[in-house]
Amino acid sequence: MNDVEHDLRELFDLKASSVGGVAPRLPEQVRKRSRRRELGTVLVSGLTVLALVVGSVAVLRAVDAGRGPEPTPADDPWVGYELFERTAVVQGFTITSPSDWYMVDQWSWARPIAADVPRNVRITPVLMLSNTDRGLTTSPCFDAAFAVGSEEAIMTIAADDAYVWKHQGQADALPQAATRFDSGAREGTGACGTGTYVPFATEDLPYVAHFLFGDDVSEEDRTTLIRAFETMSAQATIDPSPIGTRRDHPSGAYVIAGGENAAGPWTLELRPQTEHGYIANVQLELSTVEGPGVVAGGPFTVRDGRPIEQGGGDPVFGAVVKAADAVELRLEEGTPPIPAQVVPLPPSMPFDFDLFFASNDADVQATAVALDDDGVPMASSTPVTNEPSHTFLDEVDHLNPNEFWAPAVKMEGEHVVMPVTFPDGATAEVVYPAELALETLNVYPDSYANLEESSGTCGWPVHASRSDPRDNWSRGDAPLDRYERKDGRVVELWRGQPWTRPHNILITRIGPWNIVVLCRSRSMTAETTLWAEHLDASGSTEGLLVMEDSPPLDAHPGDTGATIRFSGRDVVVDLEISPDDCRGGGATDLGAGDGVVEWCAEGDVHVYANAFDARQYDFLERLTSGLDIRNYRPVA
Amino acid sequence: MAEGMRVGVEDRPAGSGLEQSDAADGGLDELYARHIGAGVRLAFLLTGDRSHAEDLAQEAFVRCVGRFRHLRKPDAFEAYFRRAIVNLHTSGLRRRRLEREWLSREGAASVRRVSSQPDVGAREDLWRALGTLPARQRAALVLRYYEDLSERETAEVLGCSVAAVKSLVARGGEALRERIRGEEA
């Protein structure tokens, strides 16, 4: 031991002893804060340890990532994947291109837009094929700022409504039917801006192919695009898919694959859907030329413990975790498996899974199995249905215990914007870089209610869950007691799980939500009844809950406590309206080394994030630099 | 550290201390009583100020309670508590809140009290020199020579490598020597 070490040891012992006795009594303020944090964490942990979902409500974050005058730089998602030649029927056109080119079926999106354009200049994009991902909501025919990148090659096939208008009443006015690029091409400016135009016709309608080539585009890409055009064929009479409204079809759809089964040609498309006016939910849709629109499809995602999800019959298609090395269809015993084609998602859709499809000519029961690097089925590789029918999810009252829910989001450049309503009714927008993917966490409201002259039978944190709390909060086949409110709603008291001790669970169901209050009583006492009768809530526009009350219950005592919680398996992020914590600049802890970060954002929104696993500390650091609250509007 | 965080006899929960508490909070009282003394002492060695140390230890306690319950590892509380104290201390940003609260409560008097400590000899020189070290160097020395943590355990608390701990301790020790020599000169 050296001199300084020796001196330090002595000094430390001396100084430590100089501190003297420390009152072992828990100060009331510390008790209060501890209880609140403890209960809050119990509420969190009860769900997070049970929740195994990476992201079940797949919220589309970047449909228009490629939108704008320049393409979005992105790593080639096809590195490491097997390319294939993709032949698909898109709105009556059969077109072949390499699988790593991006083909977007634009018809349902473009038609409503075109309808607003004067007929003498109207042109309606049908599909766009490009060597870069331009997203689903742009076209050189609609976007005046559209500019081709130096290495890009882009073709748009569009219905030439203006041609029809100009030549109405003229017999044999259709342009030539030949689709040779060299013979029909003319440079110029038209409805899709400058570029190369090739007019052509099917038997009954005029079309135009519009080409854009960047100055440095490779000869190979140029040739590939022209070949795709020249080998394209069209049905004699094109019967495009029905047109909805802009709200129905806020974007185009990626054409993933095509093929043919007993019913004829089929096309597999990836199409986002909308929710609350925002783009949300990726859908895989299988359509046939002869069939009435979509014949099979649904929202596909994968979860921990379920690395693959399948649909369809022939073909079988679905989603698989990126960790899978391959996918194969397994039929009955003794039949060799059918290898499936794995397709990475386009860069504008940064979901953490791949797609797959495989022909199943016999249309027999087939199980898609995800294989690891050694060709061994991945753990829990249990597929769901392969019913050759619609698999769209109907509206369900409750999520499964392992499913997450989050409000819909929209993209602003590289950032995700999630509008939220706090349980006290305040509103705000949560803004964060797409890489944080907060929308893949389980989002729910928490609040703190207070009952006048309470004896403390029920805890004051009020939790809400979209999953049935009987799945993971309570036990037993029947409630301990129940109470019918004056409005007829039944509130039940269930025996709590061991982790809720000493509390039991008071459950009030409102829409898809279950409001949970922890109560110590084993029956509906006078106090429990007051909670059951006077705690209420209504839905917000985003699908969250606004807690409501009537005396003697106060759902929002003071101005602190209304919380939106983002809960994952290893991390929890609380956004709590808390002037208490934010007074004078508020608590600020941006160091993730202890698993906790906190700071105050706009509107006295106290951000408190807790990682339960050191591997998530990096997430906390990115959270501190990326998460923002804006447009905060408190309750009037 | 096999013997656990240093616990003084005065820190053990008094029998009467829990009687008036809510039964559900009994565990909380006991936990607090068992650990707060050692926490305050550790915090004092890190901060050099008693009031600040209490605030820091209490803040760390509040933070650890939730995690402790979540992790359901009662034995781990001590380690988490220690780590929370050190991390709260080593982050200057984190200290702001405590300092603000402390200063608003204590006023300028507390600052004077710290700065007007009489020099009572070499030990105080060392103590004063210790106060000039960067937070992580000081924490490394306290953890190694007061808490008697191994280099590996210290690295875990500080969230760094063993090599970094060696470096922090070496540089901290060297800086103390330099400063003491400078004061003696």
Tell me about this structure.
The complex is a heterodimer of chains A (636) and B (185). Chain A is mainly β. Chain A is 14% helix and 36% strand. Chain A has 9 helices and 39 strands. In chain A, strand 7 (193-201) and strand 8 (206-213) form a beta hairpin. With 185 residues, chain B is mainly alpha-helical. Chain B is globular, with a radius of gyration of 18 Å. Chains A and B meet through helix 1 and helix 2 of A and helix 1, helix 2, helix 3, helix 4 and helix 6 of B.
How much of the sequence of chain A is in beta strands?
A: 35-45%
Task: Write down the overall mean pLDDT of chain B.
Answer: 66
Helicity range of chain A: 10-25%
Low-confidence stretches of chain A: 41-74, 274-281, 381-397
Tally of separate helices of chain A: 9
The percent of residues in helical segments of chain B reads: over 70%
- Oligomeric description of these chains: heterodimer
Largest sheet: number of strands, sense, barrel closure of chain B: none
